[in-house]
Specification:
Pfam families: AAA_31. By secondary structure, this protein is α/β, with parallel strands linked by helices. It is built from 10 helices and 8 strands. It binds adenosine-5'-triphosphate and magnesium ion (MG).
């Protein structure tokens, strides 16, 4: 079975989880078996973008502690409508005081034992390479969708990570996208400054913003405004690139 690991990485608040969930529903809608894994070690987050709940008995915490493959796979929660879409994350009711740092061996074992069960294994990373699942996800990834919200802060964040990106050999795998573009800064100038070319420029869209609360990614609920249509078009462009790999 063709199996690709996709890491969605970028600065906090750049729009990673929104993009990861839209990519996931788009790919699952095309008949691929898709996993969406939340790398947050602080709280269960990514399931909310899909209107889902992860109970404590299915928390990624359990999967990380599991010894055998079957127990790891059991922690994936199936989406109610899209039967080919599965989420793994910390549970909705996690207590951060009970959480410990993910050990490298645990993370590796989880990734290696579960990634090949899916056509697309999307990891919703955190911004920090200090987080085990984020670093492992980017290292194992076939493609890294890098989300950049066009801003001065984003440029500083990117510049600060240049050496690390090179060190992890991510350059050849990167799909850089500008997200939540409000035309506050010049995109061409930003590209020149960061020495990269955006594969897609996703606009600000109110429906996209609201989807975090409704649990209905716009690629599932459909477009209402021109900005929504543009956002969906750009997501589909990324999907085509992922399919071409
Ligand atoms: N294209 C967009 N248009 C409008 N709002 C957006 C867009 N992309 C993301 N948002 C909103 O921006 C906020 C941050 O997005 P999201 O949660 O996806 O980012 P993140 O990088 O996963 O953040 P976190 O650091 O909290 O994990 C959310 O409220 C989301 O609804
Ligand atoms: Mg997020």
């Amino acid at each position: 079975m063709r199996s690709l690991v996709i890491a969605v990485w970028g600065k906090n608040g750049s729009g990673r989880s929104t993009i990861a969930s839209n990519l996931a529903v788009c790919l699952a809608g095309k008949g691929y078996l898709v996993a969406l894994v939340g790398a947050s070690k602080a709280y269960g987050s990514v399931q909310h973008y899909l209107g889902m709940e992860v109970p404590e008995e299915k928390s990624i915490k359990k999967a990380l502690e599991a010894i055998n493959e079957d127990d790891m796979v059991k922690s994936f929660v199936q989406h109610k409508r899209l039967k080919d879409l599965f989420v793994m994350s910390l549970s909705n009711t996690e207590n951060c005081l009970r959480l410990k740092t993910v050990k490298e061996e645990e993370g590796k074992s989880l990734l290696i034992n579960t990634k090949d069960k899916f056509n697309y294994y999307i990891i919703d990373c955190t911004e920090s390479f200090g987080d085990t699942l984020t670093t492992l996800g980017c290292r194992y990834a076939d493609r890294v969708v890098e989300v950049i919200r066009p801003s001065i802060q984003a440029a500083a964040f990117r510049a600060a990570h240049r050496e690390l990106i090179d060190g992890l050999k991510l350059a050849s795998k990167l799909i850089p996208v500008a997200n939540n573009n409000k035309n506050l800064i010049d995109i061409n100038e930003l590209e020149q400054k960061l020495k990269l070319k955006f594969t897609g420029i996703l606009p600000y869209s109110r429906s996209v913003e609201r989807s975090e609360g409704t649990g209905e990614p716009v690629c599932l609920s459909g477009a209402v405004t021109r900005a929504d249509r543009e956002y969906i078009k750009e997501i589909r462009k990324i999907v085509v690139l992922l399919e071409a790999k």
